[in-house]
Amino acid sequence: MAADIKMFFCVGLAVGLTAKCHRTAQPHAVYCQDNKMIYCSLNYLMFAFQRTLQDQWSRMMVSTDQAQFMANLIRLINATKAIEVGMYTGYNALSMALAMPENGRVVACEIEDSYINISKPFFKEAGVENKIDIQHQTAMKTLNELIAAGEAGTYDFVFIDADKGNYDNYYEKSLELIRKGGVIAIDNVLWSGKVVNPAPDDQTSQSLDALNKKLHKDQRIDLSMLTVGDGLTLAIKR
Ligand SMILES: C[S@@+](CC[C@H](N)C(=O)[O-])C[C@H]1O[C@@H](n2cnc3c(N)ncnc32)[C@H](O)[C@@H]1O
Ligand SMILES: *[C@@H]1O[C@H](CO)[C@@H](O)[C@H](O)[C@H]1NC(C)=O
Ligand SMILES: *[C@@H]1O[C@H](CO)[C@@H](O)[C@H](O)[C@H]1NC(C)=O
């Protein structure tokens, strides 16, 4: 992209993001204090981020600090094979793909084709469309297909961020697919604090609480539960 076009986008981003900057910390892109832009590093991720803010469900997108942290985890463990369970508009899938070498692959699970359609131009623009294998079907079907294809024990990183009721199933399938030393990251494990004494009719909070308690005792993994975003669990396979 030409430099002057980039400059144009940067001004657009500055205007667009200023109103949003109290929502999340945005270290790799924009850091806002008293509504002032302090850092603005223009990159392909920010185009995807900015486009997603226009969607009514943009709160589903991971925060920029979380995406940055997971991308650096991927670099630290030299990951070349990753899975995202719940891609949405592709912001985090793009972040993971950009953190991987040329031979890196992200299997991105998403059932909504409108979200997939939003993601594709951003993957192409960033030059990583060949690194992201979008699977337009239920995530469970994709995970089962990968296992059936003999890929168990070959993945380095899995990010679970789709329908909460299925988290336990996604976790068990991910444990099969991940290699020893690989990382399973699980989003929304604090569920806005509702996992503490979940209401009797709140199935989502109850199932997340049950999963948290299960992982706490799970001898197959080393556990780290972080207060990043809405709660981020890291399970490292022993
Ligand atoms: C919280 S959003 C994912 C956000 C994304 N990881 C990001 O950071 O931008 C959850 C996504 O999972 C998708 N989803 C829900 N149930 C699914 C299923 N059974 N299989 C695959 N995708 C599913 C939804 O359509 C939605 O886009
Ligand atoms: C990752 O790769 C680099 C360069 O090839 C190597 O020095 C490093 O030890 C590797 N790290 C891990 C955790 O495998
Ligand atoms: C997504 O793109 C496909 C292929 O171009 C098209 O058939 C489909 O209607 C699109 N879906 C939505 C919801 O726009």
Key features?
disordered N terminus, Rossmann fold, 238 residues, 7-stranded mixed beta sheet, binds 2-acetamido-2-deoxy-beta-D-glucopyranose, binds S-adenosylmethionine, globular, alpha/beta, 8 helices, 2 domains
Summed up:
With 238 residues, the protein is an alpha/beta fold. It has helices at residues 3-18, 44-53, 64-76, 91-98, 113-125, 139-148, 167-177, 203-217; strands at residues 30-33, 36-40, 81-85, 105-109, 132-135, 155-160, 178-187, 221-226, 232-237.
Helix content: 40-55%
Largest sheet: 7 strands, mixed
Q: Which class of the largest domain in CATH terms?
A: Alpha Beta
What's the N-to-C terminus distance?
44 Å
The proportion of residues in beta strands is 15-25%
The overall pLDDT average reads 87
Number of helices: 8
Shape: globular
CATH-assigned fold name of the largest domain: Rossmann fold
Radius of gyration: 18 Å
Class of secondary structure makeup = alpha/beta
Signal peptide: 1-19
Organism: Acanthochromis polyacanthus
GO biological process, one term: methylation
Protein name: Catechol-O-methyltransferase domain containing 1
